[in-house]
Write a structure and sequence with these properties.
This protein is an alpha+beta fold. It contains four helices and four strands, in the order H-E-E-H-E-H-E-H.
Length: 129
């Protein structure tokens, strides 16, 4: 995408980006998932992780849009070693959200925080045996 435009066909859009919903689609305080057919499109992260049974780390960035989607993805992984963490103040690109700060430097080096956590998580003894 460039400048908000997506060059595709109707068939390409429907198979890659559009997610089908059932007649009981809805949302509420407990879930935003009722009636969503997550595996109805290739571009659905929740649908794509449904078959994963190996250790899985989901990281959400609190200074960006994917906070809610991180939890939805986490809830669809089937493995028992499934971790969800949030990097406070990080944007989609991992750097600190400056406009989210109450004081300059509030969130520190969010990129380092993210990679340090991933390193610690990956290094857990026995995780991949």
């Amino acid at each position: 995408m460039k400048n908000g435009a997506l060059k595709t066909t109707v068939r390409g859009f429907l198979s890659t980006y559009a997610i089908r919903a059932t007649d009981d689609y809805g949302y509420g305080e407990e879930t935003a998932e009722r009636g969503v057919i997550w595996r109805s499109t290739l571009g659905s992260n929740p649908g794509n992780v449904e078959g994963i049974t190996v250790p899985f780390l989901t990281m959400g960035m609190t200074g960006s849009f994917e906070m809610g989607s991180a939890e939805t993805i986490h809830n669809h992984v089937k493995g028992t070693d499934n971790t969800l963490v949030y990097v406070e103040g990080a944007t989609h690109n991992y750097n600190a959200c400056k406009k989210c700060e109450k004081t300059p430097g509030q969130f520190g080096d969010t990129t380092k925080t993210l990679y340090d956590y991933a390193d610690q998580w990956l290094s857990k003894p026995g995780r991949f045996l």
